[in-house]
Write a structure and sequence with these properties.
single chain; mainly alpha; 82% helix; 0% strand
Length: 456
Amino acid sequence: MAGMKNDFGSGRIWKVVLAQSIPLLFAQLVHLLYNVVDRIYIGHLPGTGAIALTGIGLAFPITTLVAAFTNLFATGGTPLYAIALGQKNEDRAERVLGQAAVMLGITSIILFLTGMFFRRDILYLFGASDVSYVYADAYLKVYLWGTTAAMLSTGLNGFINASGYPRTGMMTVFIGAFLNLVLDPVLIYGMHMGVTGAALATIISQMVSCVWALYFFLKKDAPYRIRTKYLKPSASLLAEIVPLGTAGFVMQGTNTLVSILCNVTLRTFGGDLYVGIMTIINSVREIVSLPSMCITHGSQPVMSFNYGAQKYSRIKECIRFITVGGLVYAVAAWIMVLLIPDRLMSIFTNDQEMIALGVHSLKLYFFAFAFMAFQMAGQTTFTALRCTKRAIFFSLFRKVVIVVPLTVLLPRLGFGVDGVYMAEPVSNVIGGLACGLGMYLSVYRKLPADGEQAHI
């Protein structure tokens, strides 16, 4: 099960990063299908596909919020875990692992209860109409039952990858995603369950993935284990984990805020149809962002490990690789979106009005996508090297300082629904360049020679 363990401290850095990233890419590709296939099947339901897709889009902020709390403990714990392994302090690594696991479990129960009892008010707050609410509620009231499984499987998978077992991490996602792909058509079409079937397929798959991830850390011959003695919440360790994880939390949390504002504004200026278009655009963004996201995520434990081992030259090499590689890919992906927007839209719907209007919106949204390479490289470096305040600042700067005001103001300044989609490229240019430059000046240039004490 464990597969071959990667050595982060030796070998060509690009090979080490790719050894982490390629299994992660395959895993996340299948995981993406996991989520996107739901939308594809729902979007092509005869007669109701467009409004059903809008309903699922209204649930996005809640699923994103679940991801935000997962990041709070997963992205906060995995750098500390990897640094401890680089320092050969396995006891501390297992303490961090135990704290993250128990907090993921506790938080998931709180989110489940909150979502289940207040879902009607939440969905209307998020932009539901009386028509779209029916589909959003049918999906959400089933999806919420998988909250614990989703948070544990995703959160613990980061620790599996940071342990140096990316193939096992790949299987965590692959098993659940493959099961979801099989169950979706059976439940949605075969058993005529519609959006309820899509949600049920998702939670069954999440539960299976959760069992796999837990088994990796609970089996007797596990390289590192979740131990009962480390499950009692420790204020001192959580005081390290939570601030570091706040960057990931803020990134996903602000995504939630932006999703809510987009849905509400689009419904006001364009109606349910444009909320459905935004659902498709979000799906396309997930697809085209995947390779660069996997490269940066795969590099994070590598940088953290070498930071703990005081091998700073390897960290610099890693930063150069993910920045240049991410930029080259982002430019290629941006060109592709501009060339075939109609084909990308038609993957998710056969509604001709939605496709026609969506092509224009898709081009606007992706206009400056290439600049996201700097944002991703900067955020990954800050998080991996425990530069918590800078990671949080640049997350807030791009989304809260730039995207949120523009999403509210531009439609009211005469741009209408186009203003919602225009906010993203503006934030990519300003926020991306600021984050990349901030990382270069405050981290890259200040890393010392190998073996010395770093002050960043």
